[in-house]
Design brief:
Blueprint lengths: L2 H15 L9 E5 L2 E6 L2 H11 L6 E4 L11
Antiparallel strand pairs: 1-2, 1-3
Length: 73
């Protein structure tokens, strides 16, 4: 597994296991297994992370609101 894959796995594992209820309906960015930015618009969150963590790989996702059903194929 490459270094980038390991970093993304760590961030994804955090996303799956963390209580992110305070961010429901918001976009979040995760760096090194912690939320470092959040907001209503993905582009603003991405811009903030790129400025504050220019050399880091990050995961961005919208946190589902309570009751939202997510289907995968």
């Amino acid at each position: 597994m490459s270094e980038v894959e390991e970093i993304m796995d760590k961030n994804y594992e955090f996303y799956i296991n963390a209580d992110l209820s305070e961010y429901a309906g918001k976009w979040i960015a995760i760096v090194d297994g912690k939320v470092v930015a959040s907001g209503d618009r993905a582009d603003e969150v991405i811009d903030k992370v790129r400025k504050e963590y220019p050399d880091k790989k990050f995961l961005i996702s919208k946190v589902p609101e309570p009751g939202m059903l997510i289907l995968g194929v």
